[in-house]
Amino acid sequence: MTTNFEQMRFNMIEQQVRPWEVLDERVLNVLAAFPREDFVPADYRNLAYADIEIPLGDEQSMLPPRIVGRLLQALNVQPGEQVLEIGTGSGYVTACLAQLGGQVRSLDINPMLVDTAYSRLAAHELGWLSVQTADIFAADTPIIGAPFDAIAVTGSLPDETAVAYLIAQLTLGGRLFVVIGQAPLMQAWLITRLSNGDIQRQQLFETCIPPLCNVPQPGSFVF
């Protein structure tokens, strides 16, 4: 029996993404057209559009589609913008950011995930993007391409310890999507570095997602 992924994508949009207040047509078009199933481990392929975190191995997982939709909508990536993704994971969010026109540099500390994501991304024509193994918070990691118009953090941070460092990597007008807190309750935020240098914070929604690997702990990070 052939799986009807096109119907599953439609159902994902109508039953998960739109009800979560994702109304940006550019975002909806990308989610409706792009094959999420190509980025899911083979054992979970038939669950590609389910409202779950799909395991990737090494305690990592894919974000549910509704959270991906809110992330993409909040960042509002425009063609030609420089985008940093922290936490490549499966490469699906990377691909969506590129589909929106971003020139994406994606980092992950897990070389297995990076290699797999690179192979999946290479199978699609996605414009300019780069995927590499690196720890954004390591003292010896150069932030190539900074400053960025948008930064997407796909794992949670326990507190505000590293947020100022990420804001410093934004252009004036740049946007940061980040989830802050500890299980069972976290908050998703859109943080914008305004043209006058001030910082604007918008609380988006409550959620709970896996922590970013090797994330700085309270009081442990100096930049």
Task: Offer a quick outline of the entry.
This protein has 223 residues and is α/β, with parallel strands linked by helices.
Explain what this protein looks like in three dimensions.
- There is one protein chain.
- With 223 residues, the protein is of the alpha/beta class.
- The chain has a single domain, classed as Vaccinia Virus protein VP39 (Rossmann fold).
- It has 6 helices and 9 strands; from the N terminus they run ααββαβαβαββαβββ.
- It has helices at residues 5-17, 25-33, 65-75, 92-99, 111-122, 163-167, and strands at residues 54-57, 60-62, 82-86, 103-108, 129-133, 148-153, 170-182, 185-193, 199-207.
- The strands form 2 sheets. Strands 5-4-3-6-7-8-9 form a 7-stranded mixed β-sheet. A two-stranded antiparallel sheet has the order 1-2.
- The longest helix has 13 residues, at 5-17.
- The mean pLDDT is 93.
Distance between the termini: 54 Å
Task: Give the oligomeric state.
Answer: single chain
Q: What proportion of the residues is helical, as a percent range?
A: 25-40%
Low-pLDDT parts are none
The Cα radius of gyration reads 16 Å
List keywords for this structure.
single chain; 223 residues; alpha/beta; Rossmann fold; seven-stranded mixed β-sheet; two-stranded antiparallel sheet; 26% helix
Question: What layout of secondary structure does this protein have?
Answer:
Elements lengths: L4 H13 L7 H9 L20 E4 L2 E3 L2 H11 L6 E5 L5 H8 L3 E6 L2 H12 L6 E5 L14 E6 L9 H5 L2 E13 L2 E9 L5 E9 L16
Parallel strand pairs: 3-4, 3-6, 4-5, 6-7
Antiparallel strand pairs: 1-2, 7-8, 8-9
